[in-house]
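Fold it.
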Amino acid sequence: MTDTRKIAKARATGGGIAASVAAAVLTLLFIIDAGGTRDAVLSSLRLSATSVIPAVFPCAVLSGLIVRLGGADKLGRLAERPMRLLFALPGEAFCAIFLGFLCGFPVGAKTCTELFDRGSLSREEAERLLAFSSLASPSFVINAVGKGMLGSAKAGVILFTALVLISLVSGTLLSLTARKGHKYLTTFARPAKERESFSEALIGSVNSAADAMVRLCAFSAFFSAIPAVLLPLSATLPDAVRAAVAGLFELSGGCSAAASCSLPLPSVAAVLGWTGLAVHFQILSVIKGKLSSKRYFFVSLIRAVSIFFVLLFVSIPLSDI
């Protein structure tokens, strides 16, 4: 046990040193390319203010209201049987999946966390749900990516449909990892949860959504700045590598870079499947350490690889869409 602790401590120390060195190098790059850093941050904040927040903030507030006022419990009565059969989850989980797919991140993760806080989901259930319930919104995928970056709204529809199907399959496969003998009460048998008044629910929902929007803007701005200073250093690298670097950190910039690759549809799909570290840390800031993110990161990686090869195999030329 002592040797194990020493090894774990050494790894933690080594990881801390590496992270510190990386942070120092990035700081120097930010200073050297102050103009590029400023432009990237301003562009990210402008996008958040004009597109992301207007689309996501109302949905985040309403998702909180639905959970706090017991709407998820009522929807759960209708969705109980299919949710149990497909995902080994209680019916209330349907609310997080539906809102996460319709409104985009971080609404799915926020709804999942609120359901866990209210006792509607166990920790294991919430972690499985978190792993596959957060996607880019159909508005972003179809309009911004499909129509705006690829020049085809139909391409956006194909991308979003593929994302949804692969995420649902991931959720079904994750249900196989549920503990043997896993039991939970049906929606009808669960003890009634304490209800908030409408004013309390609205205040709590707005406060929670506002906090999530601030975090969303902050992480997007920070992770937009990193590829802005790294990509000029990789000008001689292939477009696919540059797109991978951009997509590793931030979704919008990654999709834009991937759209110029020789295989635009599969490349953009992979970026959408991964979603970028900016989104991942937005999700982490929403769950606030209450849930493990291991399944979430694993599913994001698998989804990116899977959707790339699915669309590569299908091989639909953009000119035919």
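The chain is about 75% helix and 0% strand.
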